[in-house]
Design a protein that fits this description.
The chain has 377 residues and is an alpha+beta fold. The protein contains 12 helices and 14 strands. The chain has helices spanning 16-29, 34-49, 60-69, 97-115, 132-140, 196-203, 226-229, 252-269, 305-318, 334-346, 352-365, 369-376; strands at 4-6, 12-14, 79-83, 87-91, 117-125, 144-152, 157-158, 172-176, 185-189, 214-215, 221-222, 246-248, 286-294, 348-350. The protein is globular, with a radius of gyration of 20 Å. The structure holds nicotinamide-adenine-dinucleotide.
Length: 377
């Protein structure tokens, strides 16, 4: 396959290396250091590789706008505001999540490796992207980790029983390391029926939403993403703050309750702030992330007893008779690995509109068309 295949409907399939090169060049032109630009490209394309197109390169135009508006700032180093052996409260200072997230996670990992466990409270982070990245980073060092995230200033989810937006998509993520080079087990999910980016993908002609994903202004439950975005003017990027509908929390009252917990831990406890308040419904956008890092060794697992028990349970779980003939029971993170194997070979599919926006963002950043052509050759 060449780097770029254009399909009859205008959608494209792009090989991951040239795709990363276009994204990296865009952010380099926008003032990110080469390292940060590469990191952003790596993380966004990494989300596409794992099938989370909502948190992939479709975000590049929005991130470019964030730089222009001052919502996210290139090349930031975090400040540690409070610290002891097992705790750090970290200010991300609105830096790119790909950078300040990595710095915060590395602080947590170091403390947990030294002390058996650690908690980090990251405030004011730019968009942290796919949260699974952070659990994978901890698992690479043999650590179990739990990450609770909220999105201050992003009111797009209605609480159970409500229509008006009071919550963010607040993801929950946990990682369990394995050994012998096996990929860790990663549970990584928004507490809304879908992440907002999946609504954006659907709006741009990609995969449709589940029928219960959205509640419209009149209380109708629908899979149509338009009530979330309202009218988007020609040449403008769809803004989920403009619609009169809302995303729904997954699992009715239970998902809504879990979402509330994310606001408590990642918003209130970290000091980053919750999605909004009555007095301050519009807050400056950022992610807060409350993370727990645990070393199995600290729990007395000096040999492979933890991993053996995990493997034995996975085997038991997967032995459940499938609901559909020929079906398989998947463990968290397995679907992502299957998609990644396909996309590493076949490339990343992108809807027509999404690809157009990515190329426009590159050109607007000052990447010459000839350079784009070279990168995609
Ligand atoms: P999703 O609905 O695809 O759920 C993903 C989880 O479900 C994964 O753990 C996956 O392994 C598991 N899964 C998927 N299919 C499965 C199956 N058939 N059997 C068993 N398990 C299965 O994802 P989502 O909720 O739309 O979240 C997408 C991404 O959005 C995540 O990476 C999340 O971190 C990210 N996100 C980020 C933010 C942010 O502000 N940074 C906000 C919301 C979501």
């Amino acid at each position: 396959m060449s780097s770029l295949v254009e399909n009859a409907d205008g959608s494209v399939t792009v090989k991951v290396t040239p795709l990363k090169a276009v994204i990296s060049e865009t952010f380099f032109k926008l003032g990110c250091s080469e390292l940060e630009a590469t990191r952003i490209a790596e993380r966004l394309a990494g989300a596409n590789l794992r099938g989370h197109d909502s948190h992939g390169v479709i975000r590049a135009p929005r991130y470019a706008n964030y730089i222009e508006e001052g919502t996210q700032i290139p090349n930031v180093t975090v400040d540690i505001k409070i610290e002891n052996e097992t705790l750090a409260v970290i200010d991300g200072k609105f830096g790119f999540g790909q950078t300040v997230g990595e710095q915060a996670v590395d602080i947590g990992i170091k403390k947990a490796l030294n002390n058996g466990l650690a908690i980090t409270a990251l405030q004011n982070a730019g968009h942290l992207g796919r949260i699974g990245d952070w659990a994978e980073r901890a698992a690479e060092k043999g650590l179990v980790s739990i990450h609770m995230v909220n999105v201050r200033g992003s009111l797009i989810v209605a609480p159970f029983g409500g229509i008006e937006r009071r919550m963010s998509t607040s993801p929950f993520c946990a990682g369990i390391p394995l050994d012998n080079g096996d990929e860790p087990i990663i549970l990584d999910m928004a507490t809304s029926v879908v992440a907002e980016g999946k609504a954006l993908v659907a709006l741009k002609g990609g995969k449709p939403l589940p029928e219960d994903a959205i509640v419209s202004e009149d209380g109708t439950i629908t899979g149509d993403p338009k009530p979330l975005y309202g009218e988007t003017k020609q040449g403008m990027f769809p803004n989920p703050n403009n619609g009169s509908g809302a995303l729904r929390a997954f699992g009715n009252h239970k998902g809504s309750g879990l979402n509330f917990l994310m606001e408590m831990m990642a918003g209130a406890l970290t000091g980053s702030g919750c999605a909004g308040t009555i007095n301050e419904p519009k807050r400056r956008f950022c992610n807060g992330m409350f993370s727990i890092y645990l070393s199995p060794e600290a729990f007395g697992h000096s040999d492979d007893s933890f991993v053996s028990e995990v493997r034995a349970y996975v085997e038991f779980l997967k032995s459940s008779r499938p609901t559909e003939p020929g079906g398989v029971v998947l463990i968290p993170g397995e679907k992502e690995r299957q998609v990644m194997a396909d996309r590493l070979k076949g490339g990343v599919p992108l809807a027509k509109e999404a690809w157009k926006d990515i190329l426009n963002a590159a050109r607007n950043a000052g990447v010459m068309q000839s350079k784009i052509d070279d990168l995609l050759a």
